[in-house]
Known about the structure:
This protein is of the alpha/beta class. It has 7 helices and 12 strands. The strands form 2 sheets. The protein has a 9-stranded mixed β-sheet. It has a 3-stranded antiparallel β-sheet with strand order 4-6-5, with no helix packed on it.
Amino acid sequence: QVIHAVWIWRLVAVVLALTLVACRGDEAPAPAPSATPVPATATPQLSPTPVSDGIWRPSVGTSWQWQLSGLPVDLSYDVDMYDIDLFDNDADVVDALHARGRKVVCYLSAGSFEDWRPYAPEFPEAVIGNPLAEWEGERWLDVRRLDLLGPIMEARMDLCGKKGFDAVEPDNIDGYLNDTGFPLTYDDQVEYNLWLAEAAHERGLSIGLKNDSSQIMDLLTHFDWALNEECFEFDECEALSPFVEAGKAVFNAEYALKTSEFCIKANALGFSAMKKNLELDAFRQPCVSPNPTE
């Protein structure tokens, strides 16, 4: 009987053990440790052109004078900026303007060959194209050939810096829209203009986008201001608004229109506009009044 009782208790113990194992098998598995959240990587953004590098960047409403002929330069105008020719003016003219509190822009043609300039023999025949209409002695350049043009343009900008200029106005940088004699494309022009902007900034010079309004959205962040001719006469001024919206000056010159025909619009757009003679002598009629009558 004792042996029988022992076997009974052993049987009960086995049944209880099997019951406990079965119950544990019905339990939900313990949750796996949660992964530590990984912050999303921000999409890299292109940095704007730095504004603390000492380069002069004119704000909206900057006043100006533009004189490329009728020398000597008339220094008497009370304006913020003078735009004058690189080769026709020595450092003493730049110094005299600085002494009057003016910033001075260095005019040069970056997209054309000018046969009267002292550097003319430096240009290889391979980069000299068709004549510019109505501008005697001037021919378009093949801006795709940076291997040949690059050193020449860098030397010009070096001379701007040596004479003490604050900025560069590179003319004729919309050759792709003209009959240059070369198959220039939109992208060819953008590449060249971006190169010019970088070369100027490397030398501590501000640079303006001269005309070329159809490429503004590709060039806006690289150029510090804009200079346009006759956008009111040809109804093209709205294209320049992104410069104003970015806080950058837009300088405008009209030749054929009276100030009463464009100044109200220019003031509304925030442009620094004036009437000039086509030869760009000292004459100027700026849009200084909200209701010009001339």
